[in-house]
Structure prediction request, 494 residues.
Amino acid sequence: MKNITIIKRRLLKKVLIIMGVCSAGLMASCAKYGTLVSTVYMNLKGTVRSKASTQIIEGIQVELRNSLSTPKALTNNSGVFSIISEINEFDNTVNLHISDIDGALNGSFLSKDTILTLSSDEKLAHIKENIEIRLQ
Amino acid sequence: MNNRNISFKKRLTLNVFREYRKTEISLHELQYLFWESTHRCNLECIHCGSDCKQNSIIPDMPASDFLQITEKIKTQYNPNDIMVVITGGEPLMRKDLEFCGTELTKQGYSWGMVTNGVLLTKQRLNSLLIAGLRSITVSLDGLEANHNWMRNKKCFGDVIKSIALLIEQDGLVFDIVTCVNQKNFTELNEIKELLINMGVKRWRLFTISPIGRAKSNPELLLTNHQLMDLLEFIKKTRQEKQIETNYECEGFVGKYEMEVREGYYFCRAGINIASVLLDGSISACPNIDIRYSQGNIYKNNFLDIWNNQFKIMRQRDWMKTGICEHCEVFKWCEGNGMHLRDFDSKNVLCCQYNMLNN
Prediction:
């Protein structure tokens, strides 16, 4: 029962974000007379392309690896991925692990790790967009 | 009261948010833990909700008593998921604050503190940072004359110095809170300019609840029209994007929901928020009437209380009394903040939605 509620909560969070509710608005951010919580939700959006042909690649798994969680997303048929995750407020970088998990379908590419730098403006806006990843 | 002035889209989102809130209530994961560590305070602010004094007769809670609780909480929760907030009184009155912070950090918790800023020196800030301080909130209640009036002491300069120290500090989340009242209401623009010019990134605006010392001081409470003007000011300031500005979690504000805060109104007291008060009482936010406490750390197991009590905060239908009884927005508001619920009459002491519609 608890697991179902967790899944339901996750889905409702996604729906609310689509409806325009900022992800930070879904956290127990700061209670009356409390301090700000030192974590922040970030939305990472970008595109995965072939390094050789610059063509977009579908079906690539992008995994965010940080101390709080390791959410994953697959690139769509435009090569675009979007990950929403809570990160430590003080992390100025996040690691992305990119891997080709569908074998020869959509081509074969080597896995790659990349470190993204987050500016304070991006953290305040809770979004980092236009991330470009090239796979060999 | 009706909800006609709330747009269709907002009502739709509020209904989805209501379902989301139900899941949070059902899971009631502890995410935010207050520790009312002392009642001693270097100031005697006229709006104090705790009625603190320089020489409180109630002794500070021994650090070890609280640290035992946080150690036990680790058996059920990942401490990385919980923010501990040290409050008071004035936490900087405690000489062992660095020890408490260091131990909380060792246990794996992020911790922060709420301060009036007067006692914060560079040396003290450095020692707190070494102890793992991650987040700090400082009060600034107006320009010089009004801040000093509210704080009952000439301390404006000290607070400004503290803010300047915090701005220079990397790796620390901080915000400024301002309690808006009859006196500082007209100088909000100047306060905003002051903060922006200093380099402050986050500003939280409070209205004062008719509790504690504030109950007997009408100069502290805004009129209905002033509340609306304040929300318009916050909305406009947010649109300007020069300083991240939020209205606190005081209550449901109808059409201003999502315009003056990051999210929709949701009183998480007893749902994600707990507190250990100075006498050991287990409550939610520290400014909730102490008679709503759910247990005491000296008599009960904290986790037993958290897991099995707090029903009055998780099932709020009982709050449908007085002006809430026939209110159409109760489904979204659920009786306003728990701290505004009078223990004796069970009525709400202040309803922002009602104020905005009258």
